[in-house]
Design brief:
Blueprint lengths: L1 H4 L15 H4 L5 H8 L7 E4 L2 E3 L3 H20 L5 E4 L21 H11 L6 E5 L6 H6 L6 E8 L21 E6 L5 H19 L3 E6 L16 H18 L4 E5 L5 H17 L18 H14 L10
Parallel strand pairs: 3-8, 4-5, 4-7, 5-6, 7-8
Antiparallel strand pairs: 1-2
Helix pairs in contact: 4-5, 7-8, 8-9
Bound molecules: zinc ion.
């Protein structure tokens, strides 16, 4: 896709690098990092029922992390306005000391840690629109207000976490926002959720950087998911975030690839989003028209109303549905 369309997209490549051990241990147990390192060169190691490594997984995983950290640096230093880390393996299921759901290291959580430690940030928003709940990311910052975690996901579904009532704890209470959705939600549902819930919370939080766990497994053709998003829906969500990033944090918006199991849907959705990212005009009419909650599927609307109710005590600007 990039070979065919990349020339039209005004892209700049951020070179990957291997993440250092002391970068990985900002979000993972040292003994766990060592355990993954030991898989290097071994044909196959099963870490959990879904997650196995090949001889090259360690190398790919540390370059995925390092590449994303490089991209964060470039975005924060203003060398690029925004960016997309096209990395594998994905990361959002990886826990502090456990591989899960094809994920070894939590790329996005590590990117947030890096923004905190290297760039002194203390308000990082993580928006996770992957089909699945980002349990590892949520747990990384569950009691930490320096990262705001917002997730839409199919529910009940793998990995089982992500109920509306999970809102964070201690100092992090109110900084975890879950929108669990029944199967079948589509473009207008997601766009309405972004306009009615995600945008007002981001405006109130005033992030210094927005990270996106960008999975494309909520696409209607995805073999693992039961959602109904199209390329256009992903693009609209992306453009809402671009508008918010321009308004709130000098455009700093960094996507990291998570799931997506229809290669065609993945390619098409990423291509459309890259087109919007590379041509984004903060002064133009880039953000999508407002979608009416009246047009939502009743079950998605009910889920949105429940999330609004759970979050209103922390974010008083949220409307009633
Ligand atoms: Zn997923």
């Amino acid at each position: 896709m990039l070979d065919k369309q990349g020339a039209n997209l005004n892209l700049k490549q951020a070179p990957p690098r291997a993440a250092a051990r002391d970068e990985l241990t900002t979000n993972h147990a040292a003994r766990y990092v060592d355990r993954i390192a030991e898989t290097a060169g071994r044909q196959s190691t099963y870490l959990d029922p879904d997650t196995s490594t090949s001889a090259h997984s360690w190398d790919a995983a540390i370059k995925a992390v390092g590449g994303l950290l490089n991209l964060v640096d470039e975005a924060v230093e203003g060398k690029v306005r925004n960016g997309f880390a096209l990395v594998r393996p994905p990361g959002h299921h990886a826990e502090y000391d456990r591989a899960m759901g094809f994920c070894l290291f939590n790329n996005v959580a590590l990117a947030a840690r890096h923004a905190m430690s290297k760039h002194g940030m203390d308000r990082i928003a993580i928006v996770d629109w992957d089909l699945h709940h980002g349990n590892g990311t949520q747990h990384s910052f569950y009691d930490d207000p320096r990262a705001l975690f917002i997730s839409t996901h199919q529910y009940p579904y793998y990995p089982g976490t992500g109920a509306t009532r999970e809102v964070g704890s201690g100092k992090g209470e109110g900084y975890t926002v879950n929108v669990p959705l029944e199967a079948g939600a589509g473009d207008q549902d997601y766009v309405a959720i972004f306009q009615v819930l995600v945008a007002p919370i981001l405006r109130a939080y005033k992030p210094q950087l927005i990270l996106v766990s960008a999975g494309f497994d909520a696409h209607h053709t995805d073999p693992l998911g039961g959602m109904a998003l199209t390329e256009s829906g992903y693009d609209q969500m992306g453009r809402i975030l671009m508008g918010l990033a321009a308004e709130l944090c000098s455009g700093r918006l960094v996507f990291a690839l998570e799931g997506g199991y229809s290669l065609e849907a993945l390619r098409g959705s990423v291509a459309k989003l890259l087109g919007s990212l590379s041509s984004f005009d903060p002064d133009g009419e880039a953000t999508p028209e407002a979608v009416s909650v009246e047009d939502m599927r009743p079950r998605a609307r009910k889920s949105l109303a429940e999330s609004l109710d759970a979050q209103r005590r922390y974010w008083p600007d949220l409307q009633m549905l």
